[in-house]
Amino acid sequence: MTTPGATPVPVLLVAAAPATRDVVCDELARRYSADYRVEPVAPDEATARIADLRNAGDDLALVLADDPQHAEDGGTVFTAAKEAFPDVRRGLLIPWGSWADPAMAAQVRQLLAGVQIDTYVVVPRHSPDERFHRTIAEFLEEFARGADARHPGFTVIGDDAQPRTHVLSNLLLRGGVHHDRLAPDAPDAAKLLDDSGVAYSGVPLVRTAEGRVLVDPSDTELASAHGLETTLPDEVVDLAIVGAGPAGLAAAVYAASEGLTTLVLESESVGGQAASSSLIRNYLGFPRGVAGSDLAQRAYQQAWMFGARFAHARPVTGLDTGDPARFRLTVDAGPAARPGEVLARSVILATGVSYRRLAVPSLKPFIGATVFYGVSAAEARAQTGRDVLIVGGGNSAGQAALHVARYARSVTLVVRGVSLADSMSQYLIEQLEAVGVVIRTESRIAMAHPDDEGRLAAIDLEHTATGARTTVPAGAVFVTIGARPRTDWVGDAVLRDRWGSIITGPDVVAEGGRRVWPHERPPAPNEASVPGVFAVGDVRRGSIKRVASAVGEGSVTVSSVHRHLGEFDAP
After folding, report:
1. Which of 378, 425, 369 is nearest to 397 (CA)?
2. Which residues form the FAD/NAD(P)-binding domain (predicted)?
3. In 241-353, which ranges are continuous DSSP H helix?
4. In b/e form, how buried is each residue of 445-471, taking b as 16+ CB within 10 angstroms?
5. Which of 59, 62, 316, 429 falls 20 to 30 Å from 21 in CA-CA distance?
């Protein structure tokens, strides 16, 4: 694999119009020629050049084309590029102002719906054209992050059959840490271990950027190793936020920016379930879409710059609400240390939800190795050449299927319902059809079958109405069904419904009466059954399962936090 900064990676410019070719080629070469090789090619030569690059073992970072419809088989240069290089970025070149032309607008939308392009790119009007370069720079950053064209700082050495290997890799990835994952018997792994003087003993190892080797590190040790804060404050904080998903991060941004001493406690990695989404297309302000992990990292940095403190990899295991002015949070410190405590004048619960487990006993031996709950970018890339099943009918399942389809030989979406129309956005349904994802409605997983070596090989799908079974090949299964609130640790501290969702606002009085809420003022909109304790995002009963909604709830709840603190601060 070619690495930027060593041998320049090709950028393919496919332009039918000579004027477009000249201006774009000149603008690209002036800015990127040190690290990327700009190759202008004629439309009728583009697919052959892509094949040449693939056969030579080269890479391809970006394809820009103003006339994609030229392939002999009726496809486009974009489809040819994506099939040969799954991580390539693709943009349709259009003249400035042509978005007002109905034919051009229809072409752009058609290519987007068919997952042919990532976005359109306006041809530069002057030099330097920084708007043009902003788009190109984003393309190249995404390519470098998604492909192997990067300099890994960490290396995970472990058996793919061990779930812990996958957990460590995903924790690093969601933390924004570039890393390699090597099998223990790989030559590169043997060299790294020899250089470090450490032997593989059957448990995963992590080699840090500084060359230290961690032997099966805990989540907290791994977080500390790549520069994340894991300690707890000694002083009382104004606000403790439990969970660093979109809702918790939004609350942290607004609370810290408004002067509250804010602590965010996260048991895994920032971003929650949203961080596993490969591309959120309908989030306001990101016309090209945004990777969930990228959105989470931006929000984390924003909150940190405002002064919010974070305690990473620190699960909260208990909430004591006995003192209305000082809530006590019990925090797990890992197997080698005593639990810690945090005192907070107010608390926001933003722990989100976890995917429901499938009640299929034959899947159990494969969980964490080839059966996953949720989808990470690392696991998606690991499915190259495999047949993959995605279980679920919501937007998360659709986004996962699109991402995995970049790499897998085949992707089948298994849905219990009769259609996707009631549970998935229309744009996702259209894109799934465009990339050839097989949709199996009224179906569920009934049985898993291993191969002779004990690895997952096939799945029995059962029709929910007739009971008929069909066996399909499957090298991996990703489950994104339903959701269960992560509130077991809360116990009886606040009022929950029978599914575990936290009841908030007027529903507290309606459900529990004055026995639960014996106070003169009514509960605030997102306030739980204890004044000063709030719930936002998916963990709250009645929430809308959308990132934008979670961000909104986290933001507006801070005003209620101020009002609660004011009740104690008033003379």
Report:
1. 425
2. 238-554
3. 246-257, 292-305
4. bbebeeeeeeebbebbbbeeeeeeeee
5. 59
Taking a C-beta distance cutoff of 8 angstroms, is the pair 88, 143 a contact?
A: yes
Non-local (6+) Cβ contacts of 308 within 8 A are 252, 253, 255, 256, 262, 263, 264
SS percent in the chain: helix, strand, coil, step 5: 35, 20, 45
- Nearest CA to 28 among 135, 141, 133, 143? 133
Helices (DSSP H) in 121-162: which residue ranges? 130-146
On the question of pLDDT at 223 being above 60, the answer is yes
Enumerate the β-bridge partners of residue 63.
12, 90
195: buried, middle or exposed (CB in 10 Å: 19+, 13-18, 0-12)?
A: exposed
Across the beta sheet with 456-463, what order do the strands follow? 443-450, 456-463, 469-473
Residue whose C-alpha is closest to residue 399's, from 368, 383, 376: 376
Distance between CA atoms of residues 34 and 7, nearest Å: 9
Span 500-541, pLDDT tens digits: 999 999 999 998 877 889 888 999 999 999 999 999 999 999
Amino acid residing at 348: I
Question: Residue 415 in contact with residue 480, Cβ under 8 Å?
Answer: no
Q: What angle do CA 173, 178, 184 make, to 5 degrees?
A: 85
pLDDT of residue 335: 58
- Residue 5 is predicted with a pLDDT of 46
- The whole model's pTM is what? 0.87
Alpha carbons within 13 angstroms on the beta-carbon side of residue 535 total: 29
One-letter amino acid for residue 289 of the chain: G
Is 254's pLDDT higher than 80? Answer: yes
Q: Are 14 and 46 in contact (CB under 8 A)?
A: yes
Q: List strands edge to edge, sheet with 179-182.
A: 179-182, 154-157, 205-207, 213-215
**Tell me: the pLDDT tens digits for 122-134?**
999 999 999 999 9
Q: State whether the Cα torsion 205-206-212-216 is positive or negative.
A: negative
Q: Is 562 left (phi over 0), alpha (psi -120 to 50) or beta?
A: alpha
Domains of the chain in sequence order: 9-146 (3.40.50.2300), 154-225 (3.40.30.10), 239-354+495-569 (3.50.50.60), 361-479 (3.50.50.60)
Identify the pLDDT of residue 239: 98
Over residues 345-354, the mean pLDDT reads 95
